[in-house]
Write a structure and sequence with these properties.
There is one protein chain. The protein is of the alpha/beta class. The chain folds into two domains: 120 residues, Glutathione S-transferase Yfyf (Class Pi), Chain A, domain 2, CATH 1.20.1050; 158 residues, Rossmann fold, CATH 3.40.50.11810. It contains 14 helices and seven strands. α11 links the parallel β6 and β7. α3 crosses α4, α3 crosses α5 and α4 crosses α5. The radius of gyration is 19 Å and the shape is globular. The relative contact order is 0.15.
Amino acid sequence: MKVGFFIGCNTAFNRPDLELAVRYAFPRLGVELDDLIGQSCCPTSGTMPSIDLVGWCALGARNYAIAEERGLDMITVCSTCFGSLVRTRYYMLTNRGIQKQVNRILQEIGREYKGISRVRHATPYLYKEIGLEKIKEAVKYRLDGLTVALQPGCLTLWPSQLQADKENDPFHPQILREMCEALGASVPGYSRLLDCCGMGAMRSTDMERSFYLAERKITSIRTEINPHLIVTGCSSCLIQLDTTQEFLQKRRRIYYEIPVLHYMQLLAFCLGADPEAVTSMSRIRPDRVLLDLLLRYQ
C-alpha cells in the first residue's frame, strides 16, 4: 500500500515533530509514503480564492497532478490543506470551464489535471484502509487508564459530502474517538466538542477573539472532563490549542494546562517512537503523561 504524503506548510515549518510522527507510524502499519517531490502550498482556502479562484484551483491542481503522475492518492495531517484541496477538486470536477482554464495554465509547465487522485485525511485514511484491529495488534504501548478530550477540527467534518472518508454523521463524529479507543484511551464527550478552536483567518485578523474561542473550548474540556491530553486530527488545531494556553495563563484567564497532541503523534508513541522526538515542538510538554505510561512497561 502506497500513498503520497502532502506535508503542508504548517506541518513542515511549524510542527516538524508531527511530520516525523507520520513518517514513523505509516510504514509500521504497512503504508509506504511517497514524498511527492515538487509539491507546493495547498494553498489555503481562506486567502487566494477570494481574489483568483482559477489561480487557486491551478495551484491545487498542480499538487494533484504530481500525485496522479505517480498513480497515488494524497494524505495529509493538516485539515487546512485537506479542506483546501477537497474544495479545489470539487470546483474543477463540477465546473468544466474552471478545469479547462486550469489545464491551460498547467500546460505551460507540462502537466495536466485529470481528476483521478483524491486527498484523504491521515486519521480516517488509517481507519478505513488499515482498520482498528490491525492498529490494536501493532501498538507496543497502550493508553489504558488515560482520558483524552477530542478536537476533531472543522474541516475534517464539513462539507462532508465532498470527502472521501466522511463521517456517517458529522454532528456526532466517531472516527477519531474510535481511533483513540483502539489505543486504549477513555474518550468521554463534552458539550463544546464541535466548537471551532479559533485558528485560521480569525487568528490573523482578530487574535483576541481567536483566543477567546480557544479559551471557551479549553475551559469546557477542563471542567467537564479534566483529561490527561487533548487529541486532535488537525495540525492547525494542534498549534492553536497548544500555544494559546500560554497566552491565557500569562493573562490569568486560566490556571492550568493540558498537553495537546495530534493523533499521529500519539499513534507513533504507541507504536514505539521516542516520545521526545515526536513531540519535540510541544509548548505544553506531555512528558509526564507519556513517561508514566512507559514506566508501566519497564
